[in-house]
Amino acid sequence: MAELTYRPWREGDDRLLLQLWGDAEGAAAAQFRAALGPDAGADAGQAHDGAASPGAGASPGDAASGWSRCVVAEDQGIPVAAGVVYEATVHPQRLWAYVEVARDHRRAGVGTELLRRLREAAASAPGMAGRARLRSKVADGTPGAAFARARGFTVRQRSREVLVRPGALKLPVFGDGTDAGDSSPLVEDLATGSVELSDAVARYYTEVHAWDPPAPISVGRAQQLFLSDAAGAHGAVVLRAPATSAFGAGVSPAKKGRLRAFAVSYAGPATAAADAPSEVLLGHETRLPPEDAADAVRGLLALIAYQHPVRLEVEDSMTALRAAVEPLLAAGLADQMGPDQLTVGD
Q1: Looking at the record, which segments are called Disordered (predicted)?
Q2: Mean pLDDT in residue range 10-29
Q3: How many beta carbons lie within 10 A of that of residue 242, not counting itself?
Q4: Arithmetic mean of pLDDT, 144-163
Q5: What span, in angstroms and rounded, lies between the C-alpha atoms of 286 and 278?
Q6: What is the pLDDT of residue 2?
Q7: Can you give the residue range of the structural domain that contains 19?
Q8: Is residue 175 part of a domain?
Q9: What whole-number distance in Å separates Cα of residue 7 and Cα of residue 12?
Q10: Of 115, 135, 152, at which residue does a domain stop?
Q11: Does residue 211 share a domain with residue 333?
């Protein structure tokens, strides 16, 4: 193999590289490929186009905020490999990085050289103070995962896509089973624009991502990222605690019970079958004690998956959701879709 040359991204590289690379290793690789493009931010003079992705997991689609650098490797004038590093507004403490090399050029140091050049470029990223920390996302058991491990990246988080079958959990009984005399039902459809819901989602996302702390998420930002039409939010249902009155049990409460858990559903493709599983973000009020949080999440999951299949992204940091899902996986009442997805970082 002749000595390779390295250069910035040029128009048309995507078409040539995709023809050579073939299918992506997984959803994360496909999203990273979409980030390949001309340098952006600082003196590059272009805006980097990043898209938010529904779900609770930190992903390569984590809203890019303007700075990126891309390097392409050429073999006798033909692009054979590329790498990109870019910043994101939701998780600003690390930069996303991705490298892909054509199969017949692997194990020849090309990926290592691309990563070295990306690290060098990343040192000039805004807010990095000359030393950028990187993260990436890989499917377990793939060449990408082996490459990341060999280059010193360690697993920061594991996530799994889980399909819960209809009726996997017994339909719960909330309250006394009748809600008699309670002017506020314990299960409620809630508008995705609700301030109460947006606040709960923002605090939940921040808590389960303490391992890679996000920037502060306001109510408006939470609506944009997780609850807007652009994010694909389709509807929401919440589980509440029984309402109580400050004037005693004999007086009707003036307010609804506090929110315990929430489920936000996302619209699937227009071509999806009517019985296709719903993609759902399922979380809880972060101020609940652990046992109460687990009980609330399990109850709401049983309700939303009673008649229809539900697809969830389950990260190891989501302890209440794991407590509900892992027994179902062990009993064969839920299925993991694809390999573990690993967020790795240096």
Answers
A1: 40-65
A2: 93
A3: 15
A4: 96
A5: 24
A6: 67
A7: 5-152
A8: yes
A9: 14
A10: 152
A11: yes
The two tokens of residue 135 are 């993260």
Q: Which band of pLDDT confidence, cut at 50, 70 and 90, is reported for residue 48?
A: very low
The pTM (predicted TM-score) of the whole model is 0.87
Q: Which residues are bridge partners to 73 per DSSP? A: 6, 81
Give CA separation, 82 vs 99, 110, 135, 240, in Å: 6, 9, 17, 49
Residue type, 299: G
The model's pLDDT over 261-309, given as tens digits with 9 standing for 90+, comes to 999 999 887 667 777 899 999 999 999 999 999 999 999 999 999 999 9
For residue 267, the one-letter residue type is A
Segment 321-342 mean pLDDT: 97
Number of domains in the chain: 2
Q: Where are the alpha helices (DSSP H) in 90-223?
A: 110-122, 143-150, 195-208, 219-222
Residue that terminates a domain, selected from 152, 181, 209:
152
Same structural domain, 140 and 10: yes
| pLDDT number for residue 64 | 52
Phi-psi region of 67 (alpha: psi -120 to 50; beta: other; left: phi over 0): beta
- Is 66 found in the same domain as 100? yes
Q: Which residues, in sequence order, are CB contacts of 85 under 8 Å at separation 6+?
A: 68, 69, 95, 96, 97, 98, 118, 119, 121, 122, 125, 132, 134
89 lies in some domain: yes
